[in-house]
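During the reporting period the student researcher (J.K.) took over the structure-prediction task from the postdoctoral fellow and processed the backlog of single-chain submissions. One of the processed entries is reproduced below for the supervisory committee.
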Amino acid sequence: MFWKDKRVLVTGGAGFLGSHLVRKLKENGCQNIFVPSRDKFDLREKQHIIRVYEEAHPDIVIHLAAKVGGIGANARFPGEFFYDNLIMGIQVMEYARTHNVKKFVAIGTSCAYPKFSRLPFKEDNLWNGYPEETNAPYGLAKRMLLVQAQAYRNQYGLNAIYLLPANLYGPGDNFHPEYSHVIPAIIRKCLEAKENNQDKLVLWGSGKPTREFLYVEDCAEAICLAAERYDKSEPINIGSGLEISIKDLVKLVVELIGFKGKVAWDKTKPDGQPRRWLDISKAKKEFGFEAKTSLRQGLKKTIDWYRENYYRLK
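J.K. obtained the following C-alpha cells:
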C-alpha cells in the first residue's frame, strides 16, 4: 500500500531501466506516475525542470535520466558525459528541494568507484581513488550526486538516498553498435556473426577484465524497496554478487546463441576498469534486496528479446 497514494516523478522513465521501473511501480499499486518526455522536457535546462515539477507535483522523485554508453562512447564524448549528467542531477535535485519533495532517489553508477579498489567494492571505499580513465567524467558526475544528496540532507533536511547499481542488462537494452554497453554489444555481434556465417567473432580488449551484472528487472525491484524502506545518507550498492570475466561472459553468450566460430580479441582496444565487483550485503541488511535472476536466465531473456525485435531495431 506504500505506493497507492504517492505522486512519483521518474526522470528517464521511458528509457531502459526507467520503463522496467515504471512497470514495477504500477505492479506495486502506484497510480500517479509522471514521466517527462524528451521531446517536451530537456532536463539540462532550468525552465524545463521547473515545468516538470509544476506539472508533476511529486511526493517522490526517482532520478534515472542520464547520458550513458559503453567504453567507446565515453572515450569519444567525455565532455558531454560529464556536463549532461552533472547538470541534470544538480538541477533536478535542487528543484526537488524547493518543491518540498518528500524523498529523492538518486541513481549513481559502479563506474564511480576508483579504478583500483579493494574487492568486493564496499561503499566506504568510494572516495579512495580516481575512477577508470575512460569512464571517469561520467563516474565523477554521478558521484557528485552523492555529495549533493548528503549536503542537502544536512542543510535542508531533504530525504535523499543514493544507489550504486552494477552493470545492467536485459530486454529493452540499447543495442546500438556505438553506444551500447558490454552485454548488448556482445549479443549483437555474436548474432550477426552467426547470421552472416562468419568463422570469427572479433571483440574489444583482452577479455580479462571482470564485471558484475544485474538484470534490469531486479534493479527495478531494488529501487522500489529502497524508496520504501531506506532513509539514510550512506550510499548503497545494488548488484547480483557475481563477478565474471568478459571472456567467460562471451563463452556463455556464444553457447546460448549457438555461434560455432572462433572468438578473437582486438587488444588494441581498451579494456576499461580491470575488475568490478560489489559488496551487496548492505542492500540485503537495510531493505531486504537480493537479486533473483541468474546470469544465464537473464542472458537468455535478453537474447530472446533482441531476436524478436532484431529487424525492427535494425
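The committee noted the following: The chain has a mean pLDDT of 95.
J.K. will present the remaining backlog at the next meeting.
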